[in-house]
Amino acid sequence: MTPTAPTTDTETDNRRLPGDRKHDPVPHIVRIVVVGLPANSRAALRGDGPGLTDSDLKWGEDVLKEMDAPPSSNAVSGSLQNVTSTKPRMFDVLEPTDIVVMGQEPASLITIDSSGRRVPRRLLAHDEGNRHTVLRVWTGSDTIEYRCEEKFAITKVEKAGWKIHDTPDNPFQEPLPYEAKEMPRASGQKPLWVWKSGVLTAKANNQQYKATFKIGGKLIDPDVVCGYPPPNP
């Protein structure tokens, strides 16, 4: 999978063709953070009803501001870069392509809006308008690694948006389901569950995919996109 558009939140990638940097691939790491929903939430199942409300998302932001950032995290938001005494929180380090799970709804922290303008960091539900929440991966070289402190599995992968002829139904080229494996961590830390793909096939170039995750008995379905520049739907 190759990126649909340059992501201004990350460093520029000068690759041009599938397989570029085959000997120096990028291992894309996606954090999945489960915050749940407030007790009074009226959010419906994904695709059925209003989804996440502004108050739901504000509640989710407050939860993320109380959560410690992962021990391996070395990124902080602009507001914290010069405050060495402040311990970064999950709200400060999550990338737009990381996934915040609220009930059955995926959301992401963004710093770029749908028009490409930089905005204050905030939590938004996934929708068709904000492309910066979609993971963009180069085929023929890169891998994806999903990490979560709750056990998860990827139960389905399917084409989404445009459906390009001769692209595979599943770019991971491995039989489903993909069960995350528990990784050892320091004493006192919550377990970390991880699933890592193999190299994404070049045959998937330009195709958008939707992966369905099962976490705590609930299903969520964020997107992965391939293609540079983006083809028309």
State the end-to-end distance: 16 Å
Order of helices and strands: EHHEEEEEEEEEEEE
Helix content: under 10%
Q: What class would the helix/strand composition place it in?
A: mainly beta
Shape: globular
Quaternary organisation of the protein chains: single chain
Strand order of the largest sheet: 4-3-2-1-6-10-9
Largest sheet descriptor: 7 strands, mixed
Task: Output the radius of gyration.
Answer: 17 Å
DSSP summary: helix tally:
2
Round the mean pLDDT to the nearest integer and report it. Answer: 79
Strand content: 25-35%
Number of domains in the coordinates? 1
Unreliable runs: 1-12, 74-85, 227-233
What is the strand tally?
13
Describe this structure in words.
This protein is mainly beta and 233 residues long. The chain is 7% helix and 30% strand. It has one domain (27-225). It has helices at residues 54-66, 90-93; strands spanning 27-34, 99-102, 105-112, 118-125, 135-136, 143-148, 152-160, 178-179, 181-183, 192-196, 208-215, 218-220, 223-225. A 7-stranded mixed β-sheet has the order 4-3-2-1-6-10-9. Strands 5, 7, 8, 11, 12 and 13 form a 6-stranded mixed β-sheet that branches. Strand 11 and strand 12 (218-220) form a beta hairpin. It is globular and about 45 Å long. It starts with 26 loop residues before the first strand and ends in an 8-residue tail after the last strand.
Structure described in brief:
The chain is mainly beta and 233 residues long. Helices cover 7% and strands 30% of the residues.
